[in-house]
Amino acid sequence: MFLYLSFLLSFSLVLAKHEMYDGHSLFEIKIQDVNQIELVRNLEVPLQIDIWTYSQMDKKAVILVPKKNLEQFQDVLNRNDIQYNVDVDNIKRLMDEEDRLMDEAKKGSERSGTARIGFDRIYNLTEVYTYLEEVASSYPDLVTLVNAGKSFEGRDIKYLKISTTNFEDTSKPIVFVESLLHAREWVTLPPTLYAIDKLVTGNLTERSVLDKIDWIILPIANPDGYEFTHVQNRFWRKNRATGYMINDICVGVDLNRNFDANWGAFSSSNVCSEIFHGRYAFSEPESKVVRDILRTYGNRTKMFMDIHSAGSMILYGWGNGVLVPNALSVHTAGIQMAVAINAVKTSWNPNYIVGNSALVLYQASGLAMDYATVADVPYSFVYELPQHRNSAGITIFLVDPALVQQFAMETWEGILAGAKFVRDIYT
Ligand SMILES: [Zn+2]
């Protein structure tokens, strides 16, 4: 009886978890020009739509629309002759399916405490931090765990320094890889964990990327937001900063609009927006941590890779569309990374494309990618991982655990190609 009750209880908790998304629909819309982009963007706050991806080239924009505003949203699209289709009529169905798949994957995959982590599902904050501590204590000659500061809600922000020379050989270039600046982009975590695993276990095809390069790997750049996506709201993107609005009706800053690089130019001053840029550049503790890493190691850091989702793209600055001065060389590095990923990607995902972020995607400001350029990192990129989809329709931010290994492996091939590019130029 007790078991039955606790089963019912946990079942209802899971349901309650995604209740707020019951009846929300995922739209695919075909945007024809910049006026239509502007029109859709202006609907964000009043209709509480959540723009998951913008359309670029032949891809459609993907937008989550709350149940209560479905009709009004469709009215606006119809009146403006914007073509659309409803891709998922109730997103909660897919969220429950993701939970089911993750729970299934979790059975029999308890962590063994041997400084290894599986690529069979998405691990939560506690599991990842435990793993980082195990790696640091198991490989003391190679790995240093750095507690870089506290998040808004007081969680530790932890990263690893991986080096055969304890970071003391200042002639070595550094490659800096970061994920989960945006909390809901779960699929970006396995690649950084995979990079750690490859580097520390020495399971490398090219040992020189470890001998000749020092690595900084920050797997969870936004710990409050990430934890929130696990326990409360799966589609949370920003950090969890409060105090921006009376009664905190809306909270959170888009950390990837909060860096001091053209801050405020192409972002929102409205805290209810998903691209709210904060009170001023570096108003948020999480972006400050990344800034301080770049300031401390900027002169040695030759490549920065900020991993996001989704769209199969490798992007470079500046976010406003002006090309970085060494754009030709940056583009070449991007191509090498894209080619490496495309060679091992799944057949159903499109090839990666490479380009300036504003030209390929949209104008944006306050980006971590651009701040790395400000901090003298010559090769700075955003990865947008593939917009995968499983047979049940799980797509974009939702993750099918069966695909985690593939995404980790193929993204690592890109990171590795980037590291080889750095090695060939700087060592
Ligand atoms: Zn992102």
Automatic annotation (TrEMBL):
Cross-referenced Pfam families: Peptidase_M14 (PF00246), Propep_M14 (PF02244)
Signal sequence extent: 1-16
Active site residues according to the UniProt entry: E384 (proton donor/acceptor)
Domain Peptidase M14: 121-422
SMART domains in UniProt: Zn_pept
Sequence intervals crossing the membrane: none
UniProt keywords, alphabetically: Carboxypeptidase, Disulfide bond, Hydrolase, Metal-binding, Metalloprotease, Protease, Signal, Zinc
InterPro entries: M14A-like_propep, M14A_act_pep, Peptidase_M14
Highest taxon of the lineage: Eukaryota
Cofactor: Zn(2+)
PANTHER family: FI02848P-RELATED (PTHR11705:SF140), PROTEASE FAMILY M14 CARBOXYPEPTIDASE A,B (PTHR11705)
Family, as annotated: Belongs to the peptidase M14 family.
Protein's recorded name: Carboxypeptidase B-like
Organism: Bicyclus anynana
Lineage: Eukaryota, Metazoa, Ecdysozoa, Arthropoda, Hexapoda
Gene: LOC112047468
